[in-house]
Amino acid sequence: xxxxxxxxxxxxxxxxxxxxxxxxxxxxxxxxxxxxxxxxxxxxxxxxxxxxxxxxxxxxxxxxxxxxxxxxxxxxxxxxxxxxxxxxxxxxxxxxxxxxxxxxxxxxxxxxxxxxxxxxxxxxxxxxxxxxxxxxxxxxxxxxxxxxxxxxxxxxxxxxxxxxxxxxxxxxxxxxxxxxxxxxxxxxxxxxxxxxxxxxxxxxxxxxxxxxxxxxxxxxxxxxxxxxxxxxxxxxxxxxxxxxxxxxxxxxxxxxxxxxxxxxxxxxxxxxxxxxxxxxxxxxxxxxxxxxxxxxxxxxxxxxxxxxxxxxxxxxxxxxxxxxxxxxxxxxxxxxxxxxxxxxxxxxxxxxxxxxxxxxxxxxxxxxxxxxxxxxxxxxxxxxxxxxxxxxxxxxxxxxxxxxxxxxxxxxxxxxxxxxxxxxxxxxxxxxxx
Length: 434
What we know:
Distance between the termini: 42 Å
Oligomer: single chain
Helix content: 40-55%
Structural class: alpha/beta
Strand content: 5-15%
Order of helices and strands: HHHHHHHEEEHEHHEEEEHEEHHHEEHHHH
Number of helices: 18
């Protein structure tokens, strides 16, 4: 392991202790078999060494998170997205964040066979997001449009259509219709779909001809729902079981990327942006069949939700062993604390026919009336004053500082859950049924 001289404020005896603890972990892991082949005693020894190093990381970051972030972003003059930030930190502070080679080695393995290096990323990002200074800057950076969206924008403005593997975006009149089209897996999200979703949301927000966005699931080829529309089956558990769902590239990017943009809009820094740094638009959700897990989380950031009478909503993350993103932060705002605990802690399914479903969906209509209901919603939300009022509602209902503090703790808690034995066992069972 190579060492890098930390910033002057990082001395005080903390950095040497962290470096030594990290070196002990590297030495021990190099002498042990692969994670899946270790004895109970070897697993305990590895866990103890990792815990000692992680305690030092927490101690270092409690004192120096802002110093580290300023060094990585040149005094917050450079905006680094999540993946860029942890990659830069791995080079600048190699004892603090796992290297690219370590993560790449883990990426090749099933979830059950990984070392859990992402937990160290979670420790780092909890500290960054937990800082009012660094965290605010990172959230602001994540609202910038992606380079992919900027590249596709001229073509979308000309043709009114963009097709990716996971999403079709079409502009009709003043509305952008975002259709999730992973017909093979019931729109279960993986890393590719998260990238496609953020791209589509950026395009809809950046196109000045679009006044309203609509999110809906397309027709499926899955045997159980062939020819029927489905909103979303949530996280792709097969991808999670295979080790292809990452903390930074999926779980955190999803929350701080396209979901955050659905609430706050996309950041624009050009001339004429003096009155508002983001472009916001109202969003409508149309739920056919079901909105499970991440699908239900999407509904919580939309302005109007229409659901078919035979649809249902559920957040089974606790049953799967993970945290349902910012669902814990948002659901109680819609349903109140009792229903949110029933849904999140006990896996309650809300059927559209139940009265409590009206706490999540604004309209419940017959399946053959969905198109007409969506059209009426588009017309209502196209009113000129809607954008200003939704901006003020979101500031009151989801203050940015409260969201930042929630996401700081989520970064670590979700990382820890990903590598818990109960999650690994459950995901293996659920993946076979998805």
